[in-house]
Inverse folding.
């Protein structure tokens, strides 16, 4: 055990020496020899093998370089002792999108206007959120929303300072990373309307839901997103830690087990997901990160759809396919389930809906049988509220005690108008008749 620990430490020290200057054999050999008490006979070959594996200095991934060095020296014995550690400048990897350059956790702390201790506290590298009992020391408050036929939905709401940081990460970084063309949820310029528009006038519409979408996205997937964006290992680790959480044991223990034995497995699956670092539903960054984490899923399902004469799009955890009357729904369900498992997700077995042309075909609440439209039930209910408000006053019509009924009604009317202009105009006329 002690030898393995020293080997890892030696790998890190040699990686730092290699990265501390020119990426040439002579310079790397000189720095590595200077870092050690004695120069081992295998050092020159180590330098050559490292340069053969890395044509350019991997300043964005020193941990990977250190692990590679450990593999190269695995058979060497005895191992030399470390004399000194060399400082080196970390750097961004190849940047594919216009994200802000941040080469080190120190630079990240400066951008967030934090000192190193504050950044470490908010990133919670020791995972104290899982075990701390004092709620004042937690970074999240928790709410459990009941769901019919499923475990309660966990809502983890970040506290003010962490929420501000997550919003910065969202707008400064994540908004600049493009989502797959099939993704319509939480993507600028796309919406439930653009998602539904992909499936208008189709003979068959199939909707498949993913189980516990946010909780299924692990810290490793989030880390991969930030690394792909070009951030060095240490920065990507810190950004990941700021965006994921682990639900405290006391919170989960207080959630009652379902009485229905059919729900016990799903209850236990959710518990396992929440016990490991995952995306918290309630954080500003989670929708964008979940959508980006599903890029592989989108890519594969978008390639599958044409083979079945179908179309595919996704809004958050709602996977929608549409196609001809003879769309092989059984095959589609099976293949989607397999692809989802490969990509780290799981299809909710009880949430698949198939609607033919003779049925009312709904996609994210939008009717898509012949054209985009609001459901008759939603339209009639909104019309009744507007009539009540015009006849009896807005206060009397506000039976659900909406904090700002006027703003809510305007938003709902705008939504109807975006789908059906004539209906929206009729509702707007009723709205204008209300005395506010």
């Amino acid at each position: 055990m002690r030898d393995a620990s020293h080997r890892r430490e030696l790998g890190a020290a040699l990686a730092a020496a290699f990265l501390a200057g020119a990426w040439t054999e002579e310079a790397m050999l000189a720095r590595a020899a200077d870092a050690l008490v004695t120069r081992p006979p295998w050092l020159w070959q180590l330098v050559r093998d490292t340069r053969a594996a890395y044509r350019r200095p991997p300043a964005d991934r020193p941990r990977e370089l250190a692990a590679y060095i450990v593999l190269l020296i695995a058979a060497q014995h005895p191992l030399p002792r470390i004399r000194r550690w060399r400082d080196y400048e970390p750097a961004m990897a190849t940047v594919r999108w216009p994200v802000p350059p941040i080469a080190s956790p120190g630079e990240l702390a400066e951008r967030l206007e934090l000192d190193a201790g504050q950044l470490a506290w908010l990133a919670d590298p020791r995972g104290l959120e899982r075990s701390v009992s004092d709620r004042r020391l937690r970074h999240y408050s928790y709410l459990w929303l009941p769901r019919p036929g499923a475990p309660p939905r966990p809502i983890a709401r970040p506290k003010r300072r962490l929420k501000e940081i997550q919003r910065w990460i969202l707008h400064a970084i994540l908004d600049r990373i493009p989502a797959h063309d099939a993704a319509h949820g939480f993507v600028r310029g796309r919406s439930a309307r653009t998602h539904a528009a992909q499936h208008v006038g189709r003979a068959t519409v199939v909707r498949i839901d993913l189980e516990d979408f946010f909780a299924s996205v692990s810290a490793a997937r989030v880390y991969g997103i930030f690394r792909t964006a070009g951030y060095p290992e240490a920065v990507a680790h810190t950004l990941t830690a700021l965006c994921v959480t682990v639900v405290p044991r006391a919170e989960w223990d207080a959630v009652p087990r379902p009485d229905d034995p059919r729900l016990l497995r799903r209850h236990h699956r959710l518990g396992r997901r929440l016990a490991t670092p995952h995306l918290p539903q309630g954080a500003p960054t989670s929708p964008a990160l979940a959508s980006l984490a599903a890029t592989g899923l989108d890519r594969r399902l978008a390639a599958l759809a044409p083979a079945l004469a179908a179309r595919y799009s996704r809004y958050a955890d709602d996977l929608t396919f549409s196609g001809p009357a003879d769309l092989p729904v059984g095959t589609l369900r099976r293949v989607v389930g397999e692809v989802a498992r490969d990509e780290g997700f799981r299809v909710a077995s009880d949430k698949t809906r198939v609607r033919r042309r003779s049925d009312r075909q709904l996609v994210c609440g939008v009717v898509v049988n012949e054209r985009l439209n609001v459901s008759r039930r939603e339209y009639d209910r909104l019309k009744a509220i507007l009539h009540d408000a015009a006849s009896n006053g807005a206060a009397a019509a506000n039976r659900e005690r909406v904090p700002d009924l006027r703003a809510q009604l305007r938003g709902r009317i705008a939504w109807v108008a975006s789908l059906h202009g004539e209906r929206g105009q009729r509702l707007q006329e009723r709205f204008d008749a209300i005395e506010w």
About this structure: The radius of gyration is 27 Å.
